[in-house]
């Protein structure tokens, strides 16, 4: 079963999963095995911080500052996105 | 009528039809293209450059066995330089540690490795190749040791249907993060082998239930993409996500097809990348425009609430089973030919014990 994401977890896009700017369609996409996933601005901001160096806590604090939003709301969004990707094996932590 | 199509997202490159295996359900056409006349390295590079400019994001390097091409690493490297996501679809035969390293260095993103069965003797018999099972285990280890994400591909049919769950366990043991497990689709070599491959309804349903049960059990460990059997269904598959909507295939000699079986629709003419640009082929060719949109549909499909979900199902299957490529896919319960599937299933049970017609490339021409 998928593990729980901890505040100290360091989420990372595994090899074979990467963000790409699609010049033809003018949007950011997450490319993965047999999948192309559209990302909105917030998802892109989360995913580009998933390098395996920042902790979940770092990512939330950084985004809260960048988007001028309360950490609790950011945390709920970030956790939902990351857990959905982890269940599809598109994120490690 | 000319349609305004969205740009393609995927391109499946059949780099060669040469393959050491003889799987009786191979999706390649019965008339395999020989080595003479295969696109050259430079021609493939031009195709991939045009594909990237057109909007293609992912390329699937397939065959035949793509490792039979000595220029594979150069092709991968070119695709990577264009920012294309590269996926190698392989039997594993021909892979070694040195090649795996070279492919990693070239920028290959992902590997899909086929398995034939979870039982060694049965797997080798299905592949028509002694030692294939053992070789694939070695190759999976090489691939994961190199750090590639691995998907295992498995095809379910009569000979292995009772081991569908065991094949999922094998995919986990091989280190895959993802497994595609699909019931045979009856195109290409699977057509003359249909009687030998078709499981009984009870066996197919048991395999479907087992895969669904294990899919939930293995969630978080491995992603299971499950393709259920067509002939036992009431609703057709959204074949290719719609004709000419998302992907295209290029054959070893450069013909551009909306799907791997499209050449069975004999009244269509498929343009070649040697004569036309990929953009011209995608947007302008009559073959790619033939079944886009809904204008080609009959009344049943055009007024159906699932019209934009399954796009009327599969054109090749409509031709094969209803005699008209524009007909409703006979898998659909609304098709007047739906009863034909039950007849086929009954007759297939009678030819069950015949030997396989193994897929073989014709000997190289002497010219």
Short key terms for the protein model shown above:
heterodimer, A: 93 residues, alpha+beta, Arc Repressor Mutant, subunit A, three-stranded antiparallel beta sheet, B: 367 residues, alpha/beta, nine-stranded mixed beta sheet, 14 helices
Summarize it.
The complex is a heterodimer of chains A (93) and B (367). Chain A is of the alpha+beta class and 93 residues long.
What does this structure look like?
The complex is a heterodimer of chains A (93) and B (367). With 93 residues, chain A is an alpha+beta fold. Chain A has helices at residues 41-47, 56-67, 71-87; strands at residues 18-22, 27-32, 35-38. Chain A has one domain (18-87): Arc Repressor Mutant, subunit A, CATH 1.10.10. Chain A has a 3-stranded antiparallel beta sheet, with helices on one face. In chain A, a hairpin with a 2-residue loop joins β2 (27-32) and β3. The two termini of chain A are 14 Å apart. Chain B is of the alpha/beta class. Chain B has 14 helices and 9 strands. A 9-stranded mixed beta sheet of chain B has the order 7-6-5-4-3-2-1-8-9, covered by helices on one side. The mean pLDDT of chain B is 95. Classes of the chains: A alpha+beta (93), B alpha/beta (367). The A-B interface holds A 1-3, 14-18, 20, 22, 24-25, 29, 31, 33-34, 36, 86-89 and B 7, 9, 53-55, 57-58, 83, 85, 87, 109-110, 112, 147-149, 151, 177-178, 180, 219-223, 225.
Secondary structure topology:
The complex is a heterodimer of chains A (93) and B (367).
Chain A: E1 18-22, E2 27-32, E3 35-38, H1 41-47, H2 56-67, H3 71-87
Antiparallel strand pairs in A: 1-2, 2-3
Helix pairs in contact in A: 2-3
Chain B: E1 10-14, H1 41-54, E2 58-62, H2 72-81, E3 85-90, H3 97-106, E4 110-115, H4 120-127, H5 132-145, E5 150-156, H6 164-173, E6 178-183, H7 194-197, H8 201-217, E7 223-227, E8 247-250, E9 256-257, H9 278-284, H10 286-289, H11 299-302, H12 307-310, H13 315-322, H14 339-348
Parallel strand pairs in B: 1-2, 1-8, 2-3, 3-4, 4-5, 5-6, 6-7
Antiparallel strand pairs in B: 8-9
């Amino acid at each position: 079963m998928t593990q729980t994401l901890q505040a100290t977890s360091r989420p990372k896009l595994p090899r074979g999963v990467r963000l790409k700017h699609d010049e033809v369609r003018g949007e950011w996409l997450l490319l993965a095995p047999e999948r192309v996933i559209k990302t909105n601005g917030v998802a892109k901001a989360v995913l580009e911080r998933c390098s395996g160096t920042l902790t979940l806590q770092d990512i939330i604090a950084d985004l809260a500052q960048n988007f001028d939003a309360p950490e609790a709301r950011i945390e709920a969004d970030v956790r939902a996105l990351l857990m959905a990707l982890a269940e599809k094996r598109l994120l490690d932590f | 009528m000319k349609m305004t199509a969205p740009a393609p997202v995927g391109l499946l490159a059949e780099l060669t039809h040469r393959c050491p295996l003889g799987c009786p359900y191979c999706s390649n056409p019965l008339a395999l293209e020989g080595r003479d006349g295969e696109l050259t390295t430079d021609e493939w590079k031009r195709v991939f450059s045009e594909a990237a400019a057109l909007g293609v994001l992912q390329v699937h390097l397939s065959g035949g066995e793509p490792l039979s091409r000595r220029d594979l690493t150069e092709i991968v490297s070119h695709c990577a330089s264009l920012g294309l996501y590269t996926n190698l679809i392989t039997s594993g035969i021909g892979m070694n540690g040195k090649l795996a390293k070279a492919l990693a260095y070239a920028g290959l993103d992902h590997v899909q490795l086929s398995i034939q069965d979870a039982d060694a003797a049965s797997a080798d018999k299905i592949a028509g190749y002694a030692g294939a099972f053992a070789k694939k285990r070695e190759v999976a280890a090489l691939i994961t040791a190199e750090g590639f994400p691995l998907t295992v591909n498995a095809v379910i049919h009569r000979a292995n249907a009772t081991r569908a769950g065991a094949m999922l366990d094998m995919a986990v043991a091989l280190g895959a993060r993802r497994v595609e497990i699909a019931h045979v689709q009856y195109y290409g070599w699977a057509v003359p082998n249909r009687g030998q491959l078709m499981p009984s309804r009870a066996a197919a349903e048991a395999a479907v239930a087992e895969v669904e049960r294990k899919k939930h059990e293995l969630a978080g460990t491995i992603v299971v993409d499950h393709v259920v059997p067509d002939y036992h269904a009431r609703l057709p598959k959204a074949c290719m996500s719609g004709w000419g909507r998302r992907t295209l295939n290029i054959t070893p000699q450069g013909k551009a097809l909306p799907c791997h079986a499209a050449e069975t629709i004999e009244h269509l003419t498929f343009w070649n990348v040697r004569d036309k640009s990929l953009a011209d082929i995608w947007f302008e060719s009559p073959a790619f425009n033939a079944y886009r949109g809904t204008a080609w549909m009959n009344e049943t499909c055009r007024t159906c609430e699932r019209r934009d979900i399954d796009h009327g199902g599969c054109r090749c299957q409509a031709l094969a089973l209803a005699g008209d490529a524009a007909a409703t896919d006979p898998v659909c319960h609304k098709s007047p030919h739906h009863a034909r599937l039950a007849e086929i299933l009954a007759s297939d049970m009678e030819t069950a014990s015949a030997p396989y017609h193994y897929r073989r490339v014709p000997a190289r021409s002497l010219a």
